[in-house]
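Quick one, T. Sequence first:
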Amino acid sequence: MKKALPYFLWFFLAPLAVGAGILLAGERGIAFAVLALVLLSLAPFFLRFEKEKHTAAELTVLASLVAFAAVSRMALFALPGVKPVTAVVILAGMLLGKAAGFAVGALSALVSGFAFGIGGFTPFQMLGWGLCGVLAGVLAPLLKSTWFLLLYGGLSGVLFSLVMDLWTAVSLDGGFSISRFGSVLWTSLPFTVLYALTNMLFLLLMKKPAFRIFGRLKRKYGIFGEEG
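Structure tokens:
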């Protein structure tokens, strides 16, 4: 996608929005962080909406990906640590660009949250999956290799788990300490390993279909330029 936000802005603004939400605390802080992340997700598309004819088509594709990721998460709710969301987000970022990766990651967390519940953890989920998508866009040339893609899938599982463990450590008493965070990391380690491994499995299963479908969308409709 041309003229998308420089990727480093997501790494700066997204954590800043979540941090501001923590400081505000309560429902007001949650609402602020969620709104800020939604705007950050959609801003690149709406800024171009009146300038480029393909933006509406791109938003349609994004909505479909978000719906697919959310439904897949709900379908496997009984299996903790086994969720295809990260794989969908990585493929979106890798094949459609950084902006699409962040949008699919953040909005998938929000949309599926209407089924699982929305709380203080929701901005952290949006942040974790959004950053996984941005990084996939940044590393897209490397991820064309199946081995690098699988490695990144495993590391993304660890990254997302670290973000959620940070929320757990902060939510216990509203503060943060290294020792508490370390305890949370150790306790959640089995789930983190499981999540990393299942991300790799989902990527292995979804890579070829995703390359075929997304490649056809780009060729046929000319949407999602290389800068996205």
